[in-house]
Amino acid sequence: MSGVGVEMKLEVVLVPVSDVDRAKAFYEGLGWRMDIDYVGEEPGFRVVQFTPPGSECSIIIGEGITAAEPGSYEGLQLTVTDIAAARQELADKGIEVSEVFHDAGGIFHHIGTADRAPGPAPENADYGSFASFSDPDGNGWLLQEINT
Hints:
- It is a single chain.
- The protein has 148 residues and is an alpha/beta fold.
- The protein contains 2 helices and 9 strands.
- It has a 4-stranded mixed sheet with strand order 1-4-3-2, with helices on one face. A 3-stranded mixed sheet has the order 5-9-8. It has a two-stranded antiparallel ribbon with strand order 6-7.
- A hairpin with a 6-residue loop joins strand 3 (46-51) and strand 4 (58-63).
């Protein structure tokens, strides 16, 4: 059998949080659509699903859904077509978001803040401009500008 194979789409990412209601308020404040807030019959089980505007992939926060440590995720990535406008929209919503940056080496960003150069990528090159923010637990998100 040859060809592309079976199509696979990323549907959901479980994001570990310590306080579901605090995280729920944060993601609602981003303007993400809340798809479900399900509390199980057994204590310690809750599923809250959010979908960012225009995304086919959602996140789930909750209780009893992952053994990952709250705040341990880094580099969760959201693509945008206008990095400056997206950054400003987050700032206007009271989100602490970095200034726009690009990697000093011209390639995908490094871990943490290493090798960040201020401003958008030279010539506003696709895939090269970023801004970052974190949820209340410290899970790290990146905005990346892509227009191609």
